[in-house]
Specification:
This protein is an alpha+beta fold. Helix content is about 25%, strand content about 30%. The chain has 7 helices and 18 strands. α1 crosses α6. The longest helix has 18 residues.
Length: about 350
């Protein structure tokens, strides 16, 4: 159902759209237009770069738009497929979910060719773009809902060779922290679909909240380019943390459900620990204040595990069941590769 004028196999640089059928009250033959850039030259890997999986996460969207404008075919060995705003309706509305169908792009896989807009895009990725790709880069942040320590991250995939290559690519982002995470909020994730197809998958959580600092934009843009150099698709010399005079990245993981702390009731969340600070089991991570009953003592939120606070809820107003904090423990490279 999705149409594009882009020829994915043609050398050179092409800019076009994925045209997704969508009828609405004032547009019977309308399409959702998702920009796509393809830059190809000679032999080499195919790398798919995605931003805006969640529409309110703009770090990756800006980084990929810059990359699409500034990169020439002469700088590429292989093929770059660049989709800066995958969930375009959500990006336009500054929403995590699509305002057209209420779907979460990162829970929409495998999708359907005749389903809602989000489902159609997911199906196109699953059947067209992912099979053509060797490496998939899916850039996330906390959006409006969460604030992360800026980090590259990945799943702990079962295949050891795939895991080793993913770890090397993740570390090429050169963030201070690299994070191994688990999924506690459902299935149908884009990275899991790509991993199941055997792809090298690199994802991120680059800060969050409504505003984005210049520092985080630099991490997004410099890291993306370095990963592409590492993968061999973009010309240049790979930067390393050692070469930059930086300490090795801290590897942390949150693989147990108890590492993801959910609000036991609704109210105003007050965080008690700074992002990046150490946490012991039983420490107070924060409190839920009762908006309608200020006379009541706030609900204390305690850490169920020890480690580092890598993520906290961004909006103070919190509903029961919202994730308010993530605690990750430090692990060694050897632990990651043999776990």
């Amino acid at each position: 159902m999705i149409h594009t004028s882009i020829d994915l196999d043609r050398p050179g640089k092409q800019q076009g759209f994925l045209q997704v059928p969508y009828s609405h009250d004032l547009g019977g033959w309308a399409n959702v237009m998702v920009p796509i850039t393809v830059i190809a030259r000679g032999s080499g890997p195919t790398v798919l770069c995605l931003g805006g999986n969640h529409g309110d996460e703009y770090q990756g969207q800006v980084a990929i738009m810059r990359l699409a404008r500034e990169t020439t075919p002469e700088q590429v060995s292989g093929r770059l497929i660049l989709v800066p705003s995958l969930n375009m309706p959500a990006a336009k509305a500054a929403k995590r979910l699509s305002p057209l169908d209420g779907m979460n792009m990162n829970r929409a896989f495998p999708g359907s060719p005749e389903g809602p807009v989000t489902s159609q895009i997911a199906h196109y990725l699953k059947t067209v773009l992912l099979p053509k790709s060797d490496v998939v880069i899916d850039i996330h942040s906390g959006g409006r809902s969460m604030e992360f320590l800026p980090c590259s991250h990945m799943h702990l995939v079962a295949d050891r060779a795939q895991r080793t290559r993913m770890l090397a690519a993740m570390l090429a982002w050169n963030t201070d922290v690299s994070f191994l995470y688990a999924d506690i909020a459902g299935s149908g994730l884009l990275p899991v679909e790509a991993e199941n197809q055997g792809k090298i998958v690199v994802t991120t959580e680059l800060g969050g909240g409504e505003g984005i600092s210049a520092h985080v934009h630099r991490i997004a843009q410099r890291g993306l380019r370095n990963v592409l150099v590492h993968c061999g698709v973009l010309a240049g010399r790979e930067e390393t943390r050692e070469g930059l005079g930086l300490a090795p990245a801290r590897l942390v993981q949150a693989l147990a459900r108890e590492d993801y702390i959910l609000a036991p009731e609704s109210g105003i969340f007050e965080v008690a620990i700074d992002l990046g600070a150490p946490v012991d089991r039983g420490d107070t991570v924060g409190w839920i204040h009762h908006l309608e009953r200020p006379d009541r003592e706030p609900e204390r939120i305690a850490a169920a595990s020890a480690g580092t606070l890598v993520c906290m809820r961004a909006p103070c107003l919190t509903s029961q069941g919202d994730c308010v904090a993530v605690i990750a423990r430090e692990v060694s490279r050897d632990e990651v590769l043999r776990a």
